[in-house]
Amino acid sequence: MSEMSRQRGITILGSTGSIGLSTLDVLSRHPGRFKVVALTANSQVERLHEQCLKYLPQYAVMADSTAAAQLAERLKASGCHTEVLSGVDGLEQVVTLNEVDDVMAAIVGAAGLRPSMAAAKAGKRILLANKEALVMAGDLFMREVRENGAELLPIDSEHNAIFQCMPKNYSDGLSETGVAHILLTASGGPFIDRDISTFETVTPVEAVAHPNWSMGQKISVDSATMMNKGLEVIEAHWLFAATAEQIKVVIHPQSVIHSMVQYIDGSVLAQLGNPDMRTPIAHALGYPERIESGVENLNIFDIARFDFKEPDFHRFPCLRLAFEALKAGGTAPAVLNAANEVAVEAFLGSSLGFMQISKVVEQTMQQVPVSAVTDLDALLATDAEARRIAQNLIERSA
Ligand code: NAD
Ligand code: MG
CA 69, CA 395: separation in Å to the nearest integer? Predict the structure, then answer.
């Protein structure tokens, strides 16, 4: 049977989120090509119930056990035969099933690490949106991918763009394959031109209002602090074996060029498109074929101009901290990520100011000594320690 005619089984981790919804939108444009095996969410019973009725997966998983019980009851009442599982064990179970070929890893934050690792161990094709997993455990994750014959396709728009512009044999080493730099583009978020003296008064509503992209709350705040770009620098390091010096962040406010690769012969290859995550999602779902995504073609005549500028580390200290964490190596990126998750949650809950996010991250990094990453359990212990310290710092600042 040809690859075209064989249905691919897919599990979507985080199907109720922004990436999850865009994935289901692309899938529904290709009936017959994919079979949704499992859908998962944290606690959004209503939305997962609706999705189960529409896509009839074999399994649905809720991380939260109370929500899982509610979902099971609702599905039974609706006459739907989807089996409901719960917790991290349930998430791990539905990525390792034989009938699953592809795993869309679209849980937000550290919660996505264990199921994404399980998908790597099971040798699946992983469509990776959950950048935090790679930031925390890049070394362990990439090793599992290599050793188990898994395949990793980036969903993050920049990394997907870089992947499309890279030479075929880039895994032989960037310098060896003629790559000089990765030019990682960034919109700069909603506060690129805002007067810094007003940063103290930034509200959660202002921070999540991204000018070009519609995304989940956490990544929207990360875009406003530019921690998102910092996490993406670390993500690019692991995906493409690039050093910190080989990755240049370029502010490009129009968000039409999704990233570029600069070669030693002077060539620069770029991937362009309307800012809509369904493009990288369709690229990875169809890979190596091209499939329709529902995204309107870019009207090149509508683009008045492209602007580029260098990032300002003073305006965006989170970006500086991420480069520092990458250079420090070991557990430093996991500590950066954990402190940031805690600080962003506090900011969204209005118990921490916008300017304090980077301070909490910096002070947590100062308090947790950097050590080598040996195994997942030790890494998760460091993650928990960083969260405790960050939480304490937030309580003291209140
Ligand atoms: P979101 O908040 O919209 O959705 C998150 C999903 O994860 C939801 O389905 C939620 O139920 C689930 N989830 C949350 N906590 C969980 C837990 N503890 N256990 C199990 N499931 C849990 O987030 P999003 O914007 O879709 O982002 C998802 C990931 O993709 C993030 O890592 C983000 O950085 C990355 N990403 C998103 C975009 C985007 O455009 N939204 C772009 C690039 C990368
Ligand atoms: Mg991105």
Answer: 34
The torsion angles phi and psi of 229, rounded to 5 degrees, stand at -65, -35
| Identity at 277, one-letter amino acid code | M
Residue recorded with tokens 């509503």: 205
Nearest one of 154, 162, 216 to 185, comparing CA atoms: 162
Q: Are 211 and 191 in contact (CB under 8 A)?
A: no
Beta-carbon contacts of 164 under 8 Å, excluding residues fewer than 6 positions away, are 271, 283
Domain membership flag for residue 79: yes
* All residues at 6 or more sequence positions from 272 whose CB lies less than 8 Å from its CB, including other chains: 256, 257, 258, 298
Choose one of 12, 13, 15, 18 to mutate for the ligand 1 pocket test, by most ligand atoms within 8 angstroms of C-beta. 18
Handedness of CA 248, 199, 136, 326 (dihedral sign): positive
Q: Give per-residue pLDDT as tens, 187-225.
A: 999 999 999 999 999 999 999 998 888 899 999 999 999
Paired strand residues for 85: 61
For the Cβ of 131 lying below 6 angstroms from any atom of ligand 1, the answer is yes
325 within some domain: no
Taking only the tens place, the pLDDT of each residue in 134-183 is 999 999 999 999 999 999 999 999 999 999 999 999 999 999 999 999 99
Buried b (16+ CB within 10 A) or exposed e, 72-111: bebbeeeebebebbbeeebbbbbbbeeebbbbbbbbbbbb
- 329-373 pLDDT, tens digit per residue, is 999 999 999 999 999 999 999 999 999 999 999 999 999 999 999
Range of the domain at 145: 8-154
Q: How far is CA 88 from CA 40, 93, 113, 115, 118, in A?
A: 11, 9, 10, 7, 10
Q: What's the CATH code of the domain at 139?
A: 3.40.50.720
- Is 187 among the domain residues? no
Residue 247 falls inside a structural domain: no
Q: Atom 40 of ligand 1 has which residue's CA nearest to it?
A: 215
Count: domains in the chain? 1
Q: Is the pTM of this model over 0.90?
A: yes
Ligand 2 midpoint to CA 252 (Å):
13
From residue 83, alpha-carbon distances to 37, 72, 80, 111 in Å are 11, 8, 9, 22
